[in-house]
């Protein structure tokens, strides 16, 4: 556990990505099984200890510490787990510290009711850094600035294998990934994930910044405004995966049930409705379904989902990823024809004479509520990740509105000392400001400092962590779409709002009205 | 008569040489000989009456004496006795071993005016040997670069150097120019610091594998850009909290403090059991709460002009 704690602290204090990778790689090479596999799972976010939730940690603290002293400490430290780790009386010493796998085994084999006691016994055997690592491990939120991809990259670097190969087998394996290490150390062939429906990494696109492509070389498709999804089926089981490889089958069971073919396909999950070319509802409708582990029949009826297919990775057990897009497209058309048309259709190829013609078609697509256009090289193989020059996304221009800052809240992580989350509003007809959105990105570090100072110097009221500010600062807000919302008093909600400019020059009275936003509805 | 007045006063008793306690421009000053030497170094020609540890004098019917506080060279607690009542002002203090100054002596009293810089239960300073070992390990792992340690120029810097020596590190230690005179002053007071070399003006190649000590304010300025691939360390009690270390861009936090931690603060109160405690200089609310829980009479004494962050 000490080695793992040292790794976690090293990652917290190291800013360079390369150094982080090296720290993880060194740890993975020298740490024995299964400790290193559990650590890898913790870093990649695939470790889930069902018996410990953050409420258990709070309960443990309340039982031991004076509530006032705990609250003062928590307010100062800013993180519950760290506060508990630091306040915990030090009883460690000697060589009684548990290993990572001992921790996992103990916590996995206990009940939720017994877990706090088990955790407390483990705390007594560790020093402050060990206790911190233990609590982070147990609750699954490492927060060390490591993505799953970075953890896999570090594994690849540790053992001299390609990260794409790691991705390929990753989703067929479970923590503590013993087979992965056996392969990494060259003691066996790469694990064969056949016979289970597992995730293959998506092929992703680069933004088309400017310039153009030739339509002889590139095919154009709509970029639909839904959720990118992969369906993998072995016949025996069918599973759905989101962009990052998280399984979402439970949220969309009717899709899995309707998929009566064997293979792996790539598409966009949409809700049927009367916008988006008359066939798909806005992203807003889809959000009603997302993130739900179980959906009722009523939900399924109210928000009927379907998948618009982009690509095919496997037809049966035949791997098509090494074939050019044109060949895969032919196979996809044949494959889709055998599927239930109520649940699956084909993403059409846009017929354009040339790039200028395509630009015209794209410009007209704003009303059709389409995110933009995809450009795919006709000879592109299906390759994991973002490869230069093969696929481009050509998004439509963002919409912008001038809004007035109304409230601000402190950020999290390294922004916890800054007011970095802003709620902004637009004017009603009778001259009131109503909130229309919230943004916490789009500004530079310099601008953040300025905004933070503005908030502190212009606070008119405080509600817990939220400060209400003088309604004097105009923020130019960029967003991808705006739609009707019953949850907001203003009746509108933005998609992906971000601050595009600080309009210190503009008087607040001249900011936009809510009716101006309504005019931009999809 | 004032203790550590934050504005020029006619008569001042000064506990120790840190800038938030020892200011310039007072009329008459009483302090330990070491503190007077530090004030003379910082402010030029200031004079005062030296009061060695254990000695005292009388003023307006009050007996005043100075006792070791263990904080930095010359640091003192001040005992005031009047009509059988004893009041102790701790000034800044710590109870841990420190090779650069006289250790803290508990002084029985009726009223204790205690500091509370680290007056939160999350602050437990680890053994300094562990922190020095961390520093030496980082140095060994980065022989092509250097480690630059941010340390307050009075007290912390000399303590880190002396502890490195105690751990057997006898290579030259490189220091920022602003620390030279204070290190000389310590050496003149029988605190041997070994071979010290000014880092300013040296070529990068000469600093490979070096440990460089600099005031925290120099760490992020142009001075640090002349160092070969420096790893930024900081010696401070605040380093105990990860977010604080990260905010200051510290890569190697060293939890080394010249102030009492939570355990030292509360143990001292239990040991002295004063009939009343006044809490100042730091987190008065949490230590006040602790006193309440332990049925000790306490109140917060809020002072102005105290910036607690820099000399942690
Ligand atoms: Zn001090
Ligand atoms: Zn002080």
UniProtKB/TrEMBL annotation, chain A:
<keyword id="KW-0227">DNA damage</keyword>
<dbReference type="GO" id="GO:0006281">
    <property type="term" value="P:DNA repair"/>
</dbReference>
<dbReference type="InterPro" id="IPR050191">
    <property type="entry name" value="ATP-dep_DNA_ligase"/>
</dbReference>
<keyword id="KW-0547">Nucleotide-binding</keyword>
<dbReference type="InterPro" id="IPR026333">
    <property type="entry name" value="ATP_dep_DNA_lig_pp_1105_fam"/>
</dbReference>
<keyword id="KW-0479">Metal-binding</keyword>
<keyword id="KW-0067">ATP-binding</keyword>
<protein>
    <recommendedName>
        <fullName>DNA ligase (ATP)</fullName>
        <ecNumber>6.5.1.1</ecNumber>
    </recommendedName>
</protein>
<dbReference type="GO" id="GO:0006260">
    <property type="term" value="P:DNA replication"/>
</dbReference>
<dbReference type="GO" id="GO:0051301">
    <property type="term" value="P:cell division"/>
</dbReference>
<keyword id="KW-0235">DNA replication</keyword>
<dbReference type="Pfam" id="PF04679">
    <property type="entry name" value="DNA_ligase_A_C"/>
</dbReference>
<keyword id="KW-0131">Cell cycle</keyword>
<dbReference type="InterPro" id="IPR012309">
    <property type="entry name" value="DNA_ligase_ATP-dep_C"/>
</dbReference>
<dbReference type="InterPro" id="IPR012340">
    <property type="entry name" value="NA-bd_OB-fold"/>
</dbReference>
<dbReference type="Pfam" id="PF01068">
    <property type="entry name" value="DNA_ligase_A_M"/>
</dbReference>
<dbReference type="InterPro" id="IPR036599">
    <property type="entry name" value="DNA_ligase_N_sf"/>
</dbReference>
<keyword id="KW-0460">Magnesium</keyword>
<dbReference type="GO" id="GO:0003677">
    <property type="term" value="F:DNA binding"/>
</dbReference>
<feature type="domain" description="ATP-dependent DNA ligase family profile">
    <location>
        <begin position="298"/>
        <end position="428"/>
    </location>
</feature>
<dbReference type="GO" id="GO:0046872">
    <property type="term" value="F:metal ion binding"/>
</dbReference>
<dbReference type="GO" id="GO:0006310">
    <property type="term" value="P:DNA recombination"/>
</dbReference>
<dbReference type="InterPro" id="IPR012310">
    <property type="entry name" value="DNA_ligase_ATP-dep_cent"/>
</dbReference>
<keyword id="KW-0233">DNA recombination</keyword>
<dbReference type="GO" id="GO:0005524">
    <property type="term" value="F:ATP binding"/>
</dbReference>
<dbReference type="InterPro" id="IPR016059">
    <property type="entry name" value="DNA_ligase_ATP-dep_CS"/>
</dbReference>
<dbReference type="GO" id="GO:0003910">
    <property type="term" value="F:DNA ligase (ATP) activity"/>
</dbReference>
<keyword id="KW-0234">DNA repair</keyword>
<keyword id="KW-0436">Ligase</keyword>
<keyword id="KW-0132">Cell division</keyword>
